Every structure is written in C-alpha cells, then in structure tokens.
Amino acid sequence: MSINLSKFGFIKRDTPRDINLDPLQTGGVLTPEARHALQEWGDEYSVCDYCGGALDEIKTPPIYDFVHKALPEFLGCDHVRITNGAREAKFAVMHSICKEGDWVVMDGNAHYSSLVAAQRARLNVKLVEKTPAPEYKITLEKYAQAIEEVKRETGRPPALALLTYPDGNYGNLADVKAISRLVHDNGIPFLVNGAYAIGRMPFNAKELGADFVAGSGHKSMSASGPIGVLGVSEEYAPIVLEKSKTHKTKEIELLGCTARGATIMTMIASFPAVYERARPENWQKEVENARWLSAQLENLGLRQMGDKPHNHDLMFFEAMPLYEISQKTDRYFLYREMKARSIHGIKPGLTKNFKISTFGVGREKLGIVADAFKEIIKKYNAC
Question: What EC number(s) does the entry state (predicted)?
Fold first, then answer.
C-alpha cells in the first residue's frame, strides 16, 4: 500500500487575521502565555504524568486550585468540572438529571448542540417561541407558555429548562433572572448555556439563578479547544458528579476524565487575562464598541437585528445594500474585498446577512472595519 504523504505534515493557516470578526474565534484567541503553554504541554497526555487517578485532583500543575477554587468563584458555582466543550457539559446535565422520554424546554434561539445533546439523551424538546424580526427575543411570557404546554400535554412539568445567554445568532441577552424565577416556581432545574458569556462578560450562576452552567473555553476563554466548563449547584452535584461504583475516582458523566494536556493548560495560562477582561468596567467598553460599530454600519444602510441598544459583542446584520451589489457582481465579492484588507470573519458567499463579533478588536481596528464597508459599498455603487 502506498500513501500519498505530500498533503500532510505542517499545514499553514493562511487566512488573514489582522482583524478577526468571527464570533467563534474572537473570544478564543490565545494569550501569549497560552501560546507558550501550548508548546510546553502539547505532547502526549502531558498532565497525566502527574495524575493519581482524578484529573481535577492534580496539585502540580495547579489543576486542583483552578477547578475547585478559582473557577467556582469566577462562575459563582458550588462545583466546577472541565469538559470537552459546552455541548458535553449540557449533555452531562441532561443525561444525569433527566430520564429517557422526559421533556426539556429551551429557547427558540438555542444552539443546535443543545438540541442534539437532548436527542442523544433521548429527550423531547419544547422550543420557546421567539418574537418576530427584527428583535428575535425570548420573553418571559413565551417561556411560561412553553412550560404550560408541556404540563398540559404530559401532566407534569418539564424535567429541565435551558436558556442560551446570550444566544449565538443575535447576541440577545434574555431576562435570565426572571426566567429562573419562573422555572423554579414550577419546580424545574435550570441550565444556562453561557458559551458566549463565560470568559467575556460578568457572569455569576447564583446571581442569575442557574442550577447548572455550561461554558466554552475555545469560544470565550482563550483556550486551545475543544474544551468547556460545567458548573453545578450543591443540590445537584451528587447526581451530575456521581462516581463509578467500580472505579471510585471516576465521575460517570465525564467518562472518568475529560480535557487534558494542552487544552486545560492553555485555559489555565489564559485565566488571569480572562479574569480581568470579564470585569464589569472592561465589559462595558466592549459593549460600547459593539454599539459604535453597529451605528456606523446602520448609517450605511445595514440593519442590526436583535436587542437594541445591543448588550453583547455578537451581532447579526441584514445587509441589503451588499446583497444588491452581489446580484450585479457575485456572491463572493464581500469576502474577497475583506480578505484583501486582512479582515476575517464573514463567511465566503454571505452578503444578505451575517454575524460578526467585536470582542477584543478595539475601537481603532473597528474604525478600519467601518471604513472598509464604506469603501466597498462606494466602490461597487460607482460601477
């Protein structure tokens, strides 16, 4: 057998990222410390050299202090575990708290992985209806309606409620505290998917009223992924973090241990910077930058969907001026023009609508972005 090896080996990531607007990436850019950790801890199951059977109990490197001390304080949770991503955290909660055939209520803006996690756990899903365009909001009234529908159809409340905070489509921040009160008044455990919140903005599970939280290290905590975090309240910890009867140190829902090596070590390396950037005063600057760019693009005829004034860095735009240009040229013109300016983040072929994130970009570079849109529209309208 002869394998053609010419395509393999070192592969350069050649997409320009002088300015990156990709919502999946802006919060995951590695810090200098994390880049060093990636090289130092990239070989094998590197941290396993120090493991006595439970990953989260490793004292050196300081995984124990990170998981059992720093992260619970940072997230406002009683217990925290590292997972292989936010979706794995959500599945662990669903699989342990619910029984096959139970119902989960989740917002209509939920990430697809929330639905897939429920399907994998063999659960039924009731989606909370969102309001029409352009807001696409999740309201308390519609959430209550969905709960009542499940109670009426099944004779009992849903086994779990999930809210995406913010959602990954429009960057909307629902009234999580009010929804938490509603959910708990109905005797339902509450899971908050904070994949675009934890590590970017102030977040405290107890203040929000969450029994469980899921976060993403590679989306929002400057870690090399895939990696996530799972927060659990004291009440539900014995269920979610139950240990194996045959392997006493291994937690069942985590399959014994999860992220290890470069993933967790880059998360630890970036944590001081992540902790600082999530302070309220720093987050407010990010929100102001997002609102500023939104105003600049709306002055060009684009339309920002979702919450207004906006309260998150992730934004969704309807861009009819660009779509109209694409009908006269081709659908890839915007991608080419942005790439020529070393601006990354709008997927090839998208012109009618697209998502961007301003997190960590800064006002100066956002000015370059605003000018780029202005120049592109002017250039093609002059043709």
Answer: 2.5.1.73
